[in-house]
């Protein structure tokens, strides 16, 4: 299943405005935006840097294992950043009123499909 289809399904099932799969250095691998006004590629561009900062902080705290997900909330919006193998991350952009648990659950399903595609 192509990555764009997986991201489209993820966004629709989670109620997200957009989803982007990118490398930790910010290179877009695939993306989906529910509307042209959602600039998901730009929204996702710097999230690899944020994820690296969180992973460094977790390592300093001697937390075992890799950081799996980070959620950032603003006044009306929420970004969820999830890690994958192969140095990739998945970013969801959604309205803050959307259910975070549902978004994380659907993200895990999408990640399994993406990692299966990666081999």
How does this structure look, described?
- This protein is α+β, with helices and mostly antiparallel strands and 119 residues long.
- It has a single domain (3-118), classed as Dynein light chain 2a, cytoplasmic (Beta-Lactamase, 2-Layer Sandwich), CATH 3.30.450.
- The protein is 42% helix and 27% strand.
- It contains four helices and five strands; from the N terminus they run H-E-E-H-H-E-E-E-H.
- A five-stranded antiparallel β-sheet has the order 2-1-5-4-3, sandwiched between helices.
- Helix 1 packs antiparallel against helix 4.
- The two termini are 12 Å apart.
Produce the secondary structure layout:
Elements: H1 3-14, E1 18-23, E2 28-33, H2 40-44, H3 47-60, E3 69-73, E4 77-83, E5 88-95, H4 100-118
Antiparallel strand pairs: 1-2, 1-5, 3-4, 4-5
Helix pairs in contact: 1-4
Short summary:
By secondary structure, the chain is an alpha+beta fold. The chain is built from 4 helices and 5 strands.
Low-confidence segments, given as residue ranges, are: none
**Count of helical regions:** 4
Instruction: Name the helicity range.
Output: 40-55%
Level-2 CATH architecture: 2-Layer Sandwich
Q: What would CATH call the class? A: Alpha Beta
CATH homologous superfamily classification:
Dynein light chain 2a, cytoplasmic
Mean pLDDT score? 85
Q: What is CATH's topology name?
A: Beta-Lactamase
Coarse morphology:
globular
Q: What is the gyration radius calculated from CA atoms?
A: 13 Å
N→C terminal distance? 12 Å
What count of structural domains?
1
- What profile does the largest beta sheet have? 5 strands, antiparallel
């Amino acid at each position: 299943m192509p990555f764009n289809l997986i991201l489209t399904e993820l966004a629709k099932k989670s109620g997200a405005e957009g989803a982007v799969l990118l490398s930790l250095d910010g290179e877009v691998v695939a993306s989906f935006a529910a509307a042209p006004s959602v600039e998901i590629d730009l929204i996702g561009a710097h999230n690899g840097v944020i994820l690296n900062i969180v992973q460094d902080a977790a390592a300093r705290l001697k937390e075992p294992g890799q950081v799996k997900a980070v959620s950032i909330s603003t006044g009306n919006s929420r970004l969820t950043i999830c890690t994958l193998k192969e140095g990739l991350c998945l970013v969801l952009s959604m309205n803050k009123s959307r259910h975070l648990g549902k978004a994380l659950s659907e993200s895990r399903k999408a990640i399994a499909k993406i990692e299966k595609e990666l081999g």
